[in-house]
Amino acid sequence: MVLGVDVGGTKVAVAAVDGVTVRDSVEQPTRLESTEALLDGIEQTVRLMIESVGEPEAVGVGVPSQIHYATGTVETSVNIPLAGVPLREELGRRLGLPVFVDNDANCAALAEAHTLGEDNLVMLTLGTGVGGGVVIGGMTFRGAHGLGAELGHFTLNPDGPPCPGKCPNRGCIEAYCSGQALERDATELARDKSGSGLAKRLGEDGKVSGREVVAAAEEGDPDALLVFDNFGRMLGVALAGYVNVFEPDRVALGGGLSRASDLFLERAVQEASTRALPALWRRATIALAEGGADAGAIGA
Question: How far apart are CA 7 and CA 61, in angstroms?
């Protein structure tokens, strides 16, 4: 039995994992006021789990950060205060157990692959940003130092919109297929068409939220549907590229935006089918991720 820790911007989840089965789990709010508070919160949540299930063989930790895998040191971190922290060493010292640290999207991809029994899989997590993970031969692909597989920052259009994340790129996948990109496109359209349905959904902050774009599209608003059509088209371009490069048996789509897949998945698959190499495309399955809420902890 090992413990898997999934550290997110709002909660820290710890699960006792046997293979790909969760025996028990606990979660607490993420403490973001300082690095020390965050580390204390992770340690406290892990110790709660140990009190319940006993001491594990090891602890795996997934964080929304770029990780130097050999040392478990956080190189960069977007929404939690861990940049520069030797996380593997620090948590190992605190817990007195072997600790391994990886990017959270890598963890989710590994869980998806093992849950489904797929040895070659690409996973995209569509949320506020776009994350991703690649599993080849049943093992996580990380690049030379563990910082690779940043699938959300591959360029689709060199002259496209600036990436909404901490990325110097323009026109990358995150700039087209993230929650932030969805809000940007809907807001621009709403401001251009003052009498439209989207314009009526502008919030007090002057933006159309992702939740409102989804609601409008589900109600048949033509402008919202147009936004999702472009979202799906650009996602399809990305999917074709991943199929051509990695030749996976499966491409899994997860993250919060995947819950609105009825608004863009068919368009994405249609676009990808016209762009991917036919011999590779017919061997690949595009599907929603099946790992569920525990995938991050299971993968970790």
Answer: 7
In this predicted structure, the answer to whether residue 166 has a pLDDT above a threshold of 90 is no
User: Could you tell me if 101 and 92 are in contact, meaning their C-beta atoms sit under 8 angstroms apart?
Assistant: no
Neighbours of 208 (CB within 10 A): 28
For residues 98 and 139, the answer to whether their CB atoms sit within 8 Å is no
> Residue 254's closest CA among 129, 114, 140?
129
Tokens representing 45 are 């949540």
Q: What does the alpha-carbon distance between residue 25 and residue 45 come to, in Å, rounded to a whole number?
A: 10
Question: What phi, psi does 52 have (nearest 5°)?
Answer: -85, -40
Radius of gyration of the chain (CA): 20
Q: Are strands 130-136 and 250-254 parallel, antiparallel or unpaired?
A: unpaired
Q: 217-221 contacts: CB < 8 A, separation 24 or more?
A: 217/260, 217/263, 218/263, 221/196, 221/197
What are the φ and ψ backbone dihedral angles of 37, each rounded to 5 degrees? -65, -40
Q: What's the rounded Cα separation, in Å, for the pair 274 and 296?
A: 33
236-261 tens-digit pLDDT: 999 999 999 999 999 999 988 999 99
Query: Nearest Cα to 143, choosing from 171, 173, 177, 102?
Result: 102
Nearest 10 degrees: CA dihedral of 28, 131, 172, 65? 60
pTM of full prediction above 0.85: yes
Closest CA to 255 of 206, 182, 157, 171: 182
Give the residue-averaged pLDDT of 209-231.
96
Q: CB–CB of 162/172 below 8 Å?
A: no
Burial class (CB in 10 A: 0-12, 13-18, 19+), 234: buried
CA distances from 61 to 43, 98, 203 (A): 11, 11, 37
